[in-house]
Write a structure and sequence with these properties.
The protein has 70 residues and is mainly alpha-helical. The chain contains four helices and two strands, in the order ββαααα. Strands 1-2 form a two-stranded antiparallel sheet. A hairpin with a 4-residue loop joins strand 1 and strand 2. The longest helix is centred in the middle third of the chain and has 10 residues. The protein is elongated. The chain starts with a strand and ends with a helix. 21% of the residues are buried.
C-alpha cells in the first residue's frame, strides 16, 4: 500500500527502513522522501514506522548492564 503518494513511498519501504534502524519520522523522510512534499502522509507514516520497530532484545549478559546503573 502506498503511504506517500507524492514520493511513491510504500508501507513495505517504511517497514524496511525501520528494520534498517530508522526510528524517527524525520529520519524516515530523509531516507525515503515520505512526507517531504505536502506532509499529509506523516501521521500514517509514523504509525507504520512505530508498528514496524523491532522488539527490543534481551542483553546476552545482563550483568554487564548493571555497570551502567551506578
Amino acid at each position: 500500500m502506498y503511504v506517500c503518494i507524492c514520493n511513491g513511498v510504500t508501507e513495505r519501504q517504511i517497514r524496511e527502513a525501520a528494520t534498517a534502524g530508522c526510528t524517527t519520522v524525520a529520519e524516515l523522510t530523509m531516507r525515503t522522501g515520505a512526507g517531504a512534499n505536502c506532509g499529509s502522509c506523516l501521521d500514517m507514516a509514523m504509525d507504520v514506522l512505530q508498528a514496524a520497530q523491532p522488539a527490543p532484545r534481551e542483553p546476552l549478559f545482563p550483568i554487564l548492564t548493571l555497570s551502567h546503573a551506578a
